[in-house]
Write a structure and sequence with these properties.
mainly beta, Lipocalin, Methanol Dehydrogenase, Chain A, Cytochrome Bc1 Complex, Chain D, domain 2, 3 domains, 4-stranded antiparallel β-sheet, binds heme C, iron, heme
Length: 657
Amino acid sequence: MDGCGGRLQGGRRHLLLVGLLAALLSIAGCGGDDDTTASRTTFVAGGSGTSERGTWAYPNGDAGNTRKADGPINSSTVSRLGVAWTVPITAAGTFGGYASTPIVVDDTVYTQDLASNVQAIDLESGEVKWETRYDSPSVGPNGLAVGDGRVYGGTGDSAFALDQATGRELWLLRLTRNEREGVDMAPGYMDGIVYISTVPGNARGFYRGDGVGILHALDGETGRRVWSFYTVPTTLWDARHVDINSGGGLWHPPAFDEEGKIYVDVANPAPWPGTEEFPWGQSRPGPNLFTNSLVKLDASSGEIEWYQQVLPHDLYDWDLHLPPVLTEAGGRRMVLSSGKGGYVYAFDADNGDRLWSRSVGVHNGHDRDNELALAGRYEMLETPVTVYPGVLGGVETQMAVDDGVVFAPVVDLPTRFESQERTRLDIAAGRGQMVALDVETGEQKWVHRFATPPYGAATVVGSLVFTTTFDGMLWALDTATGEIVWQERLPAGTNATIAIAGDTLLTAASFPQGPGQKAQVIAYRIGATGRAETGGGEAQPTGGEEERREEGGGQTTEGGGGGGGAADLAAGRAIFEQQCAGCHTLADAGASGTVGPDLDTLRPDAATVDEKVTNGGGGMPAFGGRLSAEEIRSVADYVAAVAGQGGGGGGGGGGTP
Ligand code: HEC
């Protein structure tokens, strides 16, 4: 795999258009820089839930998204964490089965899997109290908010409220405008209003054109719309190219301050870098507001207080997508933002002034390619090109803040842009870091390096910062030095985050990557002595089944073999669209994912697909135990039959026009 910078285009030098960037960054219209009360606290802290064991009342711990917990877990007790209980995860999605941080209130854990199904689990015993199923796939992250007796969340295209005591659905409201949009976030909830956004994609594909991210404020009791904030215009910056362009939306809940304001980070524009006809984003001219912007809004009206765009005319999917974090340092209220571009930014929460920004993780010289495109200097840009951070890199998951230090989990994983429309990503080659920065100055305090990417966010308690890494490790680092204080092997690979409620730490082994690994939610508790099962013993296809597969799978194309062939292929296609399309390209299914190899090029036989889907590995999740042997066989037969056949195939399926 390419080392850092190993693939820089020979001899090319970038003109750094410093003035242009500065000009674009200073267009923030400011409002309400009223009284400055140095002593007031920044956000509504903690949760209201009465609990014996402790609470984690918001998706990111508190209303300011600090992911800082209080309680007895610290460097002297952490080694006594043992497994209190586990609950199996049944969903199997593009990015594993699970990508939410649970909510803990009233001694109950509220959690959602990547099929949008919601469970209420007894914190003490792990017993499932109720479950409400939606079976609506999401690429994640997703998750819940809890307040006023209700549990709020999203499916692949809607927002809902459930009765907190029973799980009964109270209302459901579709949010998407078309089949190319979706919902991928834990909502925010404050003072009776639910905040939830759409994004320009869903489990069947992203950035297919005409996708607009819209933040909706909904009445928590009725689901009625209070206001909507269009994070990008419905004309998508050029009304002639609405069918190609898309962008914006939120991937995480807002931060709430105590003055009735919310802070949101808005995601990237697309296509990226562009299309063959309109390279380098030429179908979407200009800075593409409000993509890659931090926006402060009035919570009750949706009016803009100020905004700051950190990356105009983004070319590389470098979302500013993480939840903004509210904190204080040097006598001012601050808001911190970050995302896949691999920078951490600090702003004055009152007037929006940028205080500092700091590059984290590996960058290889493309951070200002957007300025070249904006200036029309296309001769300075070319494909193929390998870019750090990649589309699953940078600060990919949530930061945490405690005591004047911000902790950013960074993924070092490049993307190879083969052309304007074809990208390649070697997910197994990813590595990562936890970086600690001084909140007041942005200075780096320490870096801890990991052999695989930390997709597990940062969570702080008792002078420890926790994360998980993709290889299935749970880590506790010393907040002062970055040294490892404790580590634990989870029973499967993971991209799950962590919630801490009192003496209990909740996480998941969410991304099985080898034979026998099973996805599960796990509660670790001080003094508990259990162990999580590593699985194994799940029935593998027998010899007889393999024979049947060969006979039924064949190399026949649709209609060829008669019999059940067409029906089986339809079933296989349905599974592919739900489970595989987000990562693989396969024209017949209208799939254009780039995380795994292009299956039209690879043209694998059914046995290869079957083995890979069952056992995973190399960055691909294992589906054995999540899909039945029969389902795996049908998707394998389908892929073997259609790969490289150039799509077209009648069959009404496929989403991309
Ligand atoms: C999270 C992303 C992801 C999902 C979801 C995913 N794959 Fe993969 N897949 C990968 C990656 C990454 C590789 C490359 C693995 C490697 O290099 O060993 C891969 C490899 C493969 C291969 C190549 C195997 C080989 O050895 O040549 C096949 C076939 C395949 N996947 C089929 C599927 C099917 C079918 C599904 C749905 C059931 C699926 N994948 C779901 C990421 C994914």
